[in-house]
Amino acid sequence: MKNGYLTVEVGLQNEGGGGGLQKLTMPVTYINHPRFAGLLDKAKDIYGYCSGAPGPLKLPCTVEEFINVKSLVERESGGSQ
Question: Which PANTHER family match (predicted)?
């Protein structure tokens, strides 16, 4: 993986299509964007994340929701990275 990017697991247990969790990448800088705050809060509530938690970051949202948030952040950041 390129430097400056992180892999997240995205998906819901009951998401249609049987796809389950999908691994997607995003720039690390997006994690501090206010649009991701809701997804991170939801992840903390569901998974109880704390600093230094092992394993990949899991975001409890649909893949479509993640892609929508990522696209909004890209537009607000002046383009894709």
Answer: AUXIN-INDUCED PROTEIN-LIKE-RELATED (PTHR31374), SAUR FAMILY PROTEIN (PTHR31374:SF228)
- pLDDT tens sequence across 7-25: 999 998 665 555 678 999 9
At 13, list the tokens. Answer: 């247990």
For 26-66, give the secondary structure using H, E and C. Answer: EEHHHHHCHHHHHHHHHHHHHHCCCCCCCCCEEECCCHHHH
Does residue 24 lie in a domain region? Answer: yes
**Domain boundaries, position 68:** 5-76
Nearest-angstrom CA–CA distance, 56 and 43: 12
pTM for this entry: 0.77
